[in-house]
Automatic annotation (TrEMBL):
It comes from the Bacteria. It comes from Chryseobacterium endalhagicum. It is a single-pass membrane protein. Residues 1-22 are annotated as: Disordered. This is Neutral zinc metallopeptidase.
Length: 285
């Protein structure tokens, strides 16, 4: 993907600040599902982001960020800006006002509005504070520990998926899903179906963002969409279950199958129309 000239100030870089607290894993986005499916990632080599820098050892004192870490911040700032511009436009076209999310870069652990955040969780969105949390060593581990190669645009897709959860919060979808969960009227299997619809809609929004941003910036290059699809398919529940337990239990799906994740990302990309993403009516009939 081509880098644009846009940058956002809504990036809270907590790396090198002395570390944060540990605690239980919380989620809400791709999160632990990515970590369970890491060996499925394929694609190009994002060497400009992942070529240097140490592992994710717990920091004990403040330190200066190195050149590669500063470049990572610039990349995240760029993708954050492109999300802000695209979603501001889409919301305005539909008579609404977009409120940007903050992207938090951290290493090892930090505090979020949803509780302690840990690197092992992978990127996630916290609706309580409307922030996306990312420890970029996660992507580095994908390449160095497992030989999987992640492109810059597959990282952009992951961010766009988490921003999709932010869009859901702004539109009230997140709150409605939480109300259903708290009501106690629905079985675990029923709520799993609602979770699948929620996650597939975030994939749809990531596709919409990709199309609309490319229309404005022409930032996509050959292979970029394919790398996003491969990432989406990699974290399909069926792929994860086959690898982790050797069989597929569709009732326990929480994010959707590989085919569904590809389908809804591509529907968003092909239509570029936020109004075409009602996964709930499509999937919960």
């Amino acid at each position: 993907m081509k880098w644009t000239d846009d940058r956002s100030d809504n990036v809270d870089d907590r790396r090198g600040t002395g570390g944060g607290g540990g605690g239980a894993i919380v989620g809400g986005g791709l999160g632990t599902l990515i970590i369970a499916a890491i060996i499925f990632f394929l694609g190009g080599d994002p060497s400009s982001l992942l070529s240097s820098g140490g592992g994710s050892s717990a920091p004990t004192e403040q330190r200066q960020l190195n050149a590669n870490e500063l470049k990572i911040k610039e990349f995240v700032s760029m993708i954050t800006a492109e999300n802000e511009q695209t979603w501001t436009k889409i919301f305005a076209e539909n008579g609404m006002r977009y409120q940007p999310a903050v992207v938090v870069l951290f290493e090892d652990a930090t505090q979020s509005g949803c509780g302690p955040a840990q690197a092992a969780m992978g990127p996630f969105y916290c609706p309580a504070d409307q922030k996306v949390y990312m420890d970029m060593s996660f992507f580095k581990d994908l390449q160095e520990r497992f030989g999987a190669k992640v492109t810059e645009f597959s990282i952009a897709y992951v961010m766009a998926h988490e921003m999709g959860h932010h869009v859901q919060t702004l539109l009230g979808t997140t709150q409605k899903v939480d109300a259903l969960r708290r009501s106690g009227r629905y079985s675990e299997a029923d709520m799993n179906k609602v979770s699948v619809a929620t996650e597939l809609q975030a994939d749809f929004y990531a596709g919409v963002w990709s199309r609309q941003t490319d229309s404005r910036e022409k930032f996509l290059e050959p292979g970029d969409i394919e790398s996003a699809i491969e990432a989406a398919e990699a974290v399909g529940d069926d792929n994860i279950q086959k690898k982790s337990q050797g069989y597929v239990n569709q009732e326990s799906f929480t994010h959707g199958s590989s085919a569904q994740r590809k389908e809804w990302f591509m529907k968003g990309y092909n239509t570029g129309d936020i109004k075409q993403g009602d996964t709930f009516n499509q999937l919960l009939k």
